[in-house]
Write a structure and sequence with these properties.
The chain starts with 5 loop residues before the first helix and ends with a strand. It folds into four domains: 40-64 and 81-132, OB fold (Dihydrolipoamide Acetyltransferase, E2P) (Beta Barrel), CATH 2.40.50; 201-236 and 257-326 and 343-372, OB fold (Dihydrolipoamide Acetyltransferase, E2P) (Beta Barrel); 376-490, OB fold (Dihydrolipoamide Acetyltransferase, E2P) (Beta Barrel); 515-641, OB fold (Dihydrolipoamide Acetyltransferase, E2P), CATH 2.40.50.140. It is elongated and about 120 Å long. Strands 1, 2, 3, 4, 5, 6, 7 and 8 form an eight-stranded mixed β-sheet that branches. Strands 9, 10, 11, 12, 13, 14, 15 and 16 form an eight-stranded mixed β-sheet that branches. With 645 residues, the chain is an alpha+beta fold. It holds the Pfam family DUF4503. Residues 265-644 form the DUF4503 domain. This is SPIDR protein.
């Protein structure tokens, strides 16, 4: 704080105020009597209590100074006595634990505020307040009430209503008695109902106000209206299986359990991630995306799981940054934007409470103007983006998939490489690769439909993948879909499907490891020491055959549970090529049985009775290969022949 500034002075004033309040309450609790001088003390009897904007509002009747023997029950309400609206802070309310019919002494310096066009005065600055217990009967009642927690009705006042915004939907402000929780049986006297105005609860439209008013415990009696920006799945933490509801399973991602999540935004640009508890494995994530994204929904039964910041959740905020934040309080239809408005710096992670109605989505409603559909780009355009950790969406053809082989990591936690292309890359002459590698991390949830589509080499829609440092990565909150979304911003991108044959970049000096390329060259050698063959089952292709227990001259397949009488022999060879595109490098290619190059070499070897000299000097290509490694000392390129999907 600036020395001598207003903020520093205010901070000192607040510290002194807190110290004075603490000392005064200590005197009350330690038995020290408050001065018997009652001059300036306001005595009120509570008629009704509710909460509004974290302030406890008590509708009270002012009493004359009562005798010392008068109990709160005997303090009869006189219609002639004035009605007051007394405001207590959250801390003061927690200290008093007051209920209707309680008598409260409010010591100076309380203040009375007279509001224009309002009949009920407001009492503020009530820090020095004390509940009066004047009889043994009252003390017994206090002990009994202390065992039960009183429910306080919370009135939700929409920010749009506070600022009188004309463009906000009226239904957000409709009074709803279903959202009210009465604090106690209330007494209504004839003639005083007009003197005690009550604000009824309504559907709120501000996430931040809900958090402020309801706290982290839960929103059991209120709801907030938001727009669903994204639907995705996140891996469930250990032990999450115990939180599923009934027999309803979670979506399984190769044995890893997942939960359905929503990224929602309120009318004022505030975001929250809602983590739902269960998702049926029979209903794919794609259906939820189509049915829910862009629709308005009401959240109820929520509780705050975590308040996270940009520094702790870069992945979440990279998704939030996709949606431009308009000026708070402006119409969602307004074109007024500001470049000076800072992006959100924090976000609340919400989860559901068991036994509550969590999310109510109006699927028949039109798409909200607040919804920001994924901006689809061609891969050529994505490769030219200069930023880091940018979310991108594209439509691509999967040519080849490969699981990263790290033996120390379990299979379900390994990364997978997808080699993808589209029409924007295939039509480029030079300078841009024709195929890009997309890394799929273990945290990216893939449905069974997507897993099957990857094996078949289908075209997929990659929604909200992460681009940075020259790589496209599918991480948490990235969704892979079989079809393009109904709503997407193409921004002039070429989304046409591939029609002709796919071309790969040929091996040259720019080729990198962990990529795929086309290869042509001349056979200059065969590594006979590493060549081997193995029998496989002619029915299922199982390569792990065992000796038959009954007849050790036969082989047995555990998968088929039958004897293999005609096994298929498969072999592996390493071939050295001379390539004109890399004349200084030793190019070593691993070839497998039933692949083009292997069939050619095997035929020649059989015809020449396995004479290696018979294949030397033979031309091969174009071959589709995966690049394992590239080394400079020695200058060697290790490849493996593959079959494109």
């Amino acid at each position: 704080l600036c020395r001598g500034g207003l903020a520093e002075r205010l901070c000192r004033l607040q510290n002194r105020e807190r110290s004075a309040i603490s000392f005064w309450r200590h005197q009350c609790l330690s038995g020290d009597r408050i001065p018997s001088d009652k001059s300036g003390v306001l005595i009120v009897k509570i008629l009704e209590i509710f909460e509004e904007c974290t302030i406890q509002v008590a509708i009270c009747q002012q009493l004359e100074q009562s005798p010392a023997t008068l109990s709160p029950e005997d303090a009869v309400i006189n219609a002639e006595e004035p009605i007051l609206k007394v405001l207590f802070t959250r801390e003061t309310a927690a200290h008093l634990k007051s209920r209707p019919q309680d008598v409260i002494h409010i010591y100076p310096p309380w203040q009375k505020l007279l509001i224009q066009n309002a009949d009920v005065p407001v009492i503020m600055n009530t820090y020095f307040s004390q509940k009066v217990l004047l009889s043994e009967h009252s003390e017994a009642r206090e002990k009994t009430y202390g065992l039960t927690k009183m429910l306080i009705r919370k009135n939700i006042i929409s920010l749009a209503q506070t600022f009188r915004l004309d463009d906000v939907n009226d239904k957000l402000h409709q009074e709803s008695s279903d959202n009210q929780v009465p604090c106690a049986p209330q007494t209504h006297k004839n003639g005083d109902s007009q003197r005690r105005p009550l604000a009824l609860s309504a559907v709120n439209d501000s996430l931040l106000e809900m958090v402020e008013s309801q706290g982290a415990v839960g929103w059991r009696e209120v709801q907030v209206q938001v727009v669903i920006q994204r639907v995705y799945c996140l891996p469930a933490r250990e032990g999450y299986r115990s939180h599923t509801q009934g027999n309803k399973p979670l979506l399984s991602n190769g044995g890893m359990f997942c939960r359905l999540c929503l990224l929602v935004q309120d009318a004022y640009g505030m975001f929250s991630e809602v983590q739902l508890q269960s998702l049926s494995s029979t209903d794919g994530i794609e259906q939820y995306c189509r049915r829910w994204e862009g629709k308005s929904c009401c959240l109820a039964g929520m509780k705050i799981l975590q308040r996270t910041t940009r520094g702790r959740a870069l992945g979440l905020f990279s998704l939030i940054d996709i949606v431009p934040v308009k000026v708070p309080g402006q119409s969602q239809d307004s074109e007024m934007m500001t470049t000076n408005l800072p992006p959100p710096s924090f976000c609340y992670i919400l989860t559901v409470q068991s036994g509550e109605i969590h999310v109510e989505v109006d699927e028949e409603e039109q798409i909200s103007n607040l919804y920001q559909p994924p901006a689809v780009h061609g891969l050529k355009e994505i490769l030219r983006i200069d930023g880091c950790n940018e979310r991108c969406s594209f439509w691509g053809q999967v040519l080849y998939q490969r699981l990263q082989t790290k033996h120390s990591v379990p299979i379900d936690q390994r990364e997978m490489l997808l080699f993808v292309t589209d029409s924007t890359l295939q039509n480029v002459a030079h300078g841009i690769p024709k195929v890009v590698a997309v890394s799929v991390t273990a945290s990216c949830v893939l449905s069974m439909e997507i897993t099957e589509a990857l094996s078949a080499g289908s075209q997929l829609f990659f929604k909200d993948a992460l681009w940075g440092n020259g790589r496209i990565i599918c991480v948490e909150r990235t969704v892979l879909l079989l079809q393009k979304p109904l709503l997407c911003s193409a921004a002039g991108a070429d989304l046409s499907e591939l029609t002709g044959p796919v071309r790969l970049d040929e091996l040259d000096s720019t080729t990198q490891a962990s990529s795929i390329c086309a290869l042509r060259g001349t056979v200059v050698g065969v590594n006979e020491s590493t060549a081997f063959s193995w029998p496989t089952c002619n029915r299922c292709g199982n390569g792990k055959l065992e000796v038959c227990p009954q007849d050790r001259e036969l082989l047995y397949c555990n998968q088929c549970s039958e004897v293999v009488t005609a096994p298929v022999l498969k072999m592996q060879l390493e071939v050295f090529l001379s390539c004109p595109s890399r004349p200084q490098s030793t190019v070593k290619v691993k070839v497998w049985h039933e692949i083009t190059m292997f069939v050619l070499l095997t035929m020649l070897l059989f015809l020449q009775t396995y004479e290696v000299q018979s294949v030397l000097g033979k031309e091969v290509g174009l071959l589709s290969c995966y690049v394992h490694s590239i080394t400079s000392h020695p200058n060697c390129v290790a490849l493996e022949e593959i079959v494109l999907l």
